[in-house]
Write a structure and sequence with these properties.
This protein is mainly alpha-helical. The protein has five helices and no strands. It has one domain. Helix 1 packs antiparallel against helix 2 and helix 4 crosses helix 5.
Length: about 150
Amino acid sequence: MWDMIFGAANLLAMACWAILILAPRGEVARTLVFYGGVGLLCLAYGVLLVGLLSGLVDGGGDEESVSFTTIAGVRAIFASDGGATVGWMHYLALDLFTGLWISRDADAKSFSRLLQAPVLLLTFVAGPLGLLVWLAIREPAARRANPRTGLKR
């Protein structure tokens, strides 16, 4: 079961990233990525996390040691197929949301899709690093848009 859920989540995320990077970014595409990708991944994550933590679905591992407050407790969460799948869905959802935000911000600041593509790919494979690169790239454009605050009005 976990292999199927893991595979489906990966396929959904990759399809949404392909839309985000390669397809024209109209309202339909953005809505599809936001609700059909980020939204579904968040929903599945929430349902499965509650199932794992409540014992409704089998996560494996030693339930006594599962905790969010220690490294050993977090390791225990990820020590099962269920825990690894739910944890991976967490990354997929947040990285995809970040990519969607980057694409919207880049489009609003008139950055070319050729510049956006490597940043989005970096966000896809190394979420926070892609976000950091985008923030460094966008800062001069944001300051030019509004020198006092750095924010576009």
